Amino acid sequence: IGTGTGILAILAARLDAVVTAYEESDVVRGIADTNFKLNEVDIMLHGEWQGYVEVTYDLVVANLGNVDYGELGILKAGTEVWTSG
Fold first, then answer.
1. pTM here?
2. Rounded to an integer, what distance in angstroms lies between the CA atom of residue 30 and that of residue 25?
3. Domain coordinates of the chain in residue numbers?
4. From the DSSP assignment, how many helices (H) and strands (E) are in the chain?
5. pLDDT in tens, 21-72
6. Cα atoms found within 13 Å of the Cα of residue 44, Cβ hemisphere only
7. How many CB atoms lie within 10 A of CB 39?
8. Which InterPro entries match (predicted)?
9. Residue 64's closest CA among 55, 74, 54?
10. Is 52 left (phi over 0), alpha (psi -120 to 50) or beta?
């Protein structure tokens, strides 16, 4: 997911909340959809161009570039990490 959405998702995961993201790019939506599916997270997409995503995060995988995910404290030991970047 884009960096801004990824940071929002990390905060939401820590707060046990729901993230609502609006993405207009088909590429970004495809990245988000792949991330959610790989982590067995429920996702709902509404509208061909609106790109509305609403999901409760059990595990956050964000497209944040070269990030030490352990430092973010969002992954458990042995968790496989996948990013688009």
1. 0.27
2. 9
3. 3-72
4. 3, 3
5. 555 555 556 666 665 555 554 444 443 434 444 444 445 555 545 555 555 4
6. 7
7. 17
8. SAM-dependent_MTases_sf (IPR029063)
9. 74
10. beta
